[in-house]
Amino acid sequence: MQKIVAAALGRAEIEYVRPFVIASGPMRTATSVIVALRSEDGTVGIGETTCMTAYTGQTEEGVTAALEHWLLPAIMGLEPTAIQQVHYIMDRHLRENDLAKAAVDIACYDLAGRLLGVPVYELLGGKVRDEVRLAWAVGLGTVDEMVAEAVDWASRGFAIKVKIGIEPEQDLRNVLAIRKAIGDEAILRVDANAGYDVATAVSILPRMEEANLQLIEQPVGRYDLPGMARCRAVCRSPILADESQHTPLDTLNILRAGAADIVNTKIVKPGGLYPSRQVAALAEVGGLKAMVGSMPEIAPDGPGLGVELRETVELRWL
Ligand SMILES: [Mg+2]
What we know:
Number of strands: 14
Helix content: 25-40%
Largest sheet: 7 strands, parallel
Structural class: alpha/beta
Strand order of the largest sheet: 4-5-6-7-8-9-10
Strand content: 15-25%
Number of helices: 11
Shape: globular
CATH class of the largest domain: Alpha Beta
Bound molecules: magnesium ion
């Protein structure tokens, strides 16, 4: 197998088509840090991590410094298929910093796939199904704006995920109005982004379930697993952990606390595809469902729906 002999860094800034407002605040732009890894024969693999600082607490500057000064020098000379070794070496050089590690992890999988001539999903064990339903997140706004956006995306076949978590009675009115507008068949979820305290959550959520919710995402704080468990006890809809679910250890603690029915494993949160598979394996054996979420990453052929790329990405070889 080819060895990794060079690395490059880049950055990309994407702009939301309109500000995306969630319980923790509005977001107008999102920044990605890009890693390129080159093997001896000149093949290049690309990895990306999204900082989403208000959500993750990690900054672009911190992620870039961790990569440039600690992680990328440490993995030179390793083989991109030796992903356990890559993580072992990264963890020995620098604790945590999972977003930075995710960029390296994803670049290793991409490089390994290119060298072996197979798509990454085959490296991960192949596919189970051909289609996955996507959800559209409706940010906080006026009820008319939120209803119009939900109707638009539900008509295209998307599941609708409505942001809640700031003002409970207004959240209730928004969710009931959206259910009425999109009809009974459309899939409707809510996401509080850790915005409620437990007392608010246990009083408002059972009323919100009148809207026939497929799931309720992160009603209370990231570290409040007993509070998540209390919500679970009073709601018939499944409770999904997002902010509470970053690392494999989080999955274990969620299982121990009975804090959720589903975990949202966004690939960069625990440090890339390798630890995300550990999250999924723990969830599976523990009886939780695992959902794959995403940050506002740039798709291979350009930014995703609802965001625009500000400028072309330029790579700086180290
Ligand atoms: Mg969420």
